[in-house]
Design a protein that fits this description.
- This protein is 44% helix and 8% strand.
- By secondary structure, it is mostly helical.
- Strands 1-2 form a two-stranded parallel sheet.
- The protein is globular and about 45 Å long.
- The relative contact order is 0.19.
């Protein structure tokens, strides 16, 4: 997927549109400020979620919070996104720990 994006025309322009936001997958509303959460809902229409803990020594509560509830929170955010997925100016959210 990323090779296709990097090879596409306008890649440099795309890089200028990236706006990092600080959050935490283990917190309600992904640990985002109200303004950042609204900005994502209003301006994003593609979500790539890959945050997880793969540490098999992590306690069950932490693993469930990150892997299960974190995914649930991403789905909840995705349901609130206003843009349709096939609009010309797709925006992207990526999560990672």
């Amino acid at each position: 997927m990323f090779d296709v994006i990097k090879a596409s025309e306008g890649f440099d322009e795309l890089l200028n549109k990236i706006k990092p936001v600080s959050g935490d997958i283990s917190e309600e509303n992904l640990g985002l400020s109200d303004d950042d959460f609204k900005m994502l809902c209003d301006n994003v229409n593609i979500v790539v979620h890959c945050a997880a803990t793969l540490d098999f020594e992590t306690d069950l509560k932490t693993a469930v919070t990150i892997n299960l509830l974190g995914t649930k929170r991403i789905v909840e955010l995705s349901k609130q996104i206003k843009n349709q997925p096939n609009t010309p100016n797709n925006k992207l959210i990526m999560t990672n720990i």
